[in-house]
Amino acid sequence: MRKLHLLAATLLCGTLPATGLHAQVASHSENIPGTGNPTSDGTDKYDTATPQKFRAPAPGAPQAPGVNAANLPPIGEIDPATLPAMVPQLSANPAAGDWVAYGRDDSQNRYSPLTQITPENVGKLERAFIYHTGSKPAPGQTNKWAAETTPIKVGRKLFMCSATNDIMALDATNGQQLWRFDAGVKYASIPYTAACKGVVYYTSSTVPEGQHCHTRIVESTLDMRLISVDSEDGKPCEGFGFNGQVNLMQGMGESVPGFVSMTSPPPIVNGVVVINQEVLDGQRRWAPSGVIRGYDAETGKFAWAWDVNNPDDHHQPADGKFYSRGTPNSWATMTGDNELGLVYVPTGNSAADYYSALRTDKENAVSSSIVAIDVKTGSPRWVFQTVHKDVWDYDIGSQPTKLDYKGSNGETVPALLVPTKRGQTFVLDRRTGQPVADYPVEEKPAPSPGVVPGDPRAPTQPWSTAFPRLGFPDLKESDMWGMSPIDQLFCRIKYRRAAYVGEFTPPHIDRPWIEYPGYNGGSDWGSMAYDPTTGVVIANWNNTPMYDQLVTRKQADKLGLMPIDDPNFKPGGGGAEGAGAMADTPYGIVVTPFWDQFTNMMCNKPPYGMIEAIDIHTKKVLWQHPIGTARANGPWGLPTFLPIQIGTPNNGGPIITAGGLVFVAAATDNQIRAIDIKTGKVVWSDVLPGGGQATPMTYEVDGKQYLAIMAGGHHFMMTPVSDQLVVYKLPG
């Protein structure tokens, strides 16, 4: 019997985090060159003596065909001071049975006051209906699909988008499609991922009730369009842009389809639609801009821009000019604050994630930060930085959550909860960006000044000292894991040959370095859920180190790492996650999971995914458990069918209900779960038709509470792709 338990344990450790960590690399073989980093001719170890000019493209460099997807004319400007006052929006105070915004309401806390489904009856949930979006890879197409969609619900309708931006309205009781808007996104425009996290519901301030487009559905697309359609019939709002569309590549300069995209719902704050965009990682230093822009929600006209390297010029670039290139981009879902007139922008780092020598001081000041931008001017009011001079891809992927925090001194502070990939969670005063007094931030010495010539690291990094860390202690050699003693020995050798001095181990050229937490560690785009009635925070997070190495330009060429706009670029040859060309710099980057590539199992011991409850008032962890079973995971990618909670990688967030439940999917075992929020015990689960890498939502119609999850799967997590929205309710 003991041998059987040992066999089960070794199989369980094959809940491959690489399913959630390895993408955009040509194969699963490890391409890290290792000690010496030889160039193609075996000489010139660092390749830094070769004269190179790392310059941005000329101002007149053209955009490739297809970048302006609908061939839209340029949009004009409007003075932000002349924008009409925004009427009250439903998301400010939604009906109890509605879920009006991506995170349910303007606070984006993913909390529902519904109580019908409880720990006692949740086991009776049954499927009410399944809706097919129709968006899946066609035969012969590389799978880039990862829908990540959370529907919104207003009245008796669900509104949602497909992975490729078609917009649908459904009857919330039976899933009947009421209308559909075909966005026409082409496969060539899909960047790293075909994903649409959600749409925005907006009530017009200028179109009277009863007229077309008084209420609207707004979305941003993979091919960089802003679209506004009528919520009643799905037809374009003719007074918005050009037949309901605006070209968001205007002013962006040289680009090709798939280089720049949008996957998150754009917030509308005081009548301004705020636009951010994902710029494909790992391509080149002079990638398209990470500029943040505001547009009039009524007409689609341009209102302002925040261009990091031109912070005082809030206009669109003149003909032949473009926004400053390679600046930190923001791809996460932003949070609006109508009361303060701010939008909270989670930023990443400048293009060429793992090399910072070419970044400007202005870029270094706002990377991997929360930037609070005034929506009437486009100027930042404050900046809070979570990583200094980031070369670990620790961009902020989580949506911030607004809350009213009652401090130990009795003062109620309008606060902002900021999760990060580091597992550090910051609690900020959203008026000033300063840490809330009960949650101080300490600058601690970083482990090393760095070893890359001309690219020193920051001497300190910020740590949130009071909020429980979403993570485990630094790795040790004794933490190495494997199916057998040979596998464990292999991982110990990998550990020894790599540079590792704890978190913020700096990049290396002559050998690999271990990045822990990895770029998919801590909290990512699923963010957290917060119960404002109790102060309980629910967080699911990853424990997944990476194995990185800078490679010379010659070695990058030898490995086939070319940027997406290079004629020799091949899909899977570098980009987004994994290996990248980082053209216009002296180095490329190779990133793999810290794993045994022969068994496809991580080298660190499980669990690889966790979920926990934290009391924000006492700063205590109420419970903590692994999330995800081994049923669909195992060594060599084979499922073990073992239902033990071992903890798998997970992407997608949790929700909380007043009925005492947490609902979460996210894990790579393709299940959705209900967890008793008091005990952390799983009280119900169901196997989904595809991976559940999305955040669920819940709503009520005719006195019945429903639960919805997009089971679209995820190419990055290697979970089964489907086009199915699955909706549950209690019987009767």
List its salient traits.
5% helix, disordered N terminus, four-stranded antiparallel beta sheet, Quinoprotein_ADH-like_sf, 4 helices, Methanol Dehydrogenase, Chain A, signal, 732 residues, mainly beta, 28% strand, five-stranded mixed beta sheet
Structural write-up:
- The radius of gyration is 24 Å and the shape is globular.
- It has one domain (80-729): Quinoprotein alcohol dehydrogenase-like superfamily (Methanol Dehydrogenase, Chain A, 8 Propeller).
- Strands 1-37-38-39-40 form a five-stranded mixed sheet, with no helix packed on it. The protein has a four-stranded antiparallel sheet with strand order 2-43-42-41, with no helix packed on it.
- By secondary structure, it is mainly beta.
- It has four helices and 43 strands.
- This is Pyrroloquinoline quinone-dependent dehydrogenase.
- Belongs to the bacterial PQQ dehydrogenase family.
